[in-house]
Amino acid sequence: xxxxxxxxxxxxxxxxxxxxxxxxxxxxxxxxxxxxxxxxxxxxxxxxxxxxxxxxxxxxxxxxxxxxxxxxxxxxxxxxxxxxxxxxxxxxxxxxxxxxxxxxxxxxxxxxxxxxxxxxxxxxxxxxxxxxxxxxxxxxxxxxxxxxxxxxxxxxxxxxxxxxxxxxxxxxxxxxxxxxxxxxxxxxxxxxxxxxxxxxxxxxxxxxxxxxxxxxxxxxxxxxxxxxxxxxxxxxxxxxxxxxxxxxxx
Length: 250
Hints:
Number of helices: 4
Order of helices and strands: EEEEEEHHEEEEHHEEEE
Helix content: 10-25%
Number of domains: 1
Radius of gyration: 17 Å
Mean pLDDT: 92
Largest sheet: 7 strands, antiparallel
Shape: globular
CATH architecture: 4-Layer Sandwich
CATH superfamily: Penicillin V Acylase, Chain A
CATH class: Alpha Beta
Low-confidence stretches: none
């Protein structure tokens, strides 16, 4: 996944909102989000059928994890799939616990990555350049993470998305139409847009996911199994209804 927008404690009704596009080879097999059991915890996440693991998900404790690769060197096939870090994080009861799990990871075992973990109370980022691990707490606010973040060769995409989300009213989280508009931006340089189409390279935006974790009321998850510029989102919120609400803030 290559565009990850995380708003942590920004909107009055929804402490955590995520809008994400996954960019990947068009022939890489995967499954859409489904309920999955792991270590006594229920996870809602898609599945990478080639490398195993996932690129994002949420668990029954209200912990979210979202992964991007890091631009630069091609992946080393001798290293473990970084997708296995998402289910590892989602075995946690809180984002803080997930952060502690990830800080213990051996960075040389995985290809380069950025990984955000968050719940309704806090958010964290762990990223690796393939040699060292860089963990940090994220303040309340808007965070845009792509494969080119953190001196990884940023494009205008990150700045434009950040400015647009920061300009939104704070009293109520925007609906799906606003997020879809942000995630369907095209550019002359395909990698500068949030929605990528490179058929000549058999590469592009494969799916899009929107997640709202609210203070009260119904949480929501929408998913488009294809580029969001031409694929309607499906409302998968019913899959979240069995999740407990104990992790919600007052």
